[in-house]
Design brief:
Length: about 60
């Protein structure tokens, strides 16, 4: 019996993929995992936020 395991492809995009909550731009799952919050939700992307803000966490909402 052949197993149908889905391999994770970090650069592959999908129509139901992650989107930036700030501007709505599509981002990859890998980007969401790295720059998103603990739930892989992206609050700022390169289209609407600087990389400096993303690296420091300045794009994440304050609780």
């Amino acid at each position: 019996m052949k197993s149908t395991q889905h391999d994770w492809k970090p650069m592959e995009s999908s129509t139901a993929g992650a989107r930036c909550r700030n501007c709505g731009t599509h981002v990859t799952q890998q980007f969401a995992r790295v720059f998103g919050d603990n739930g892989d939700v992206v609050h700022g992307c390169p289209s609407c936020t600087t990389y400096r803000e993303m690296q420091s966490g300045g794009h994440l909402p304050r609780e």
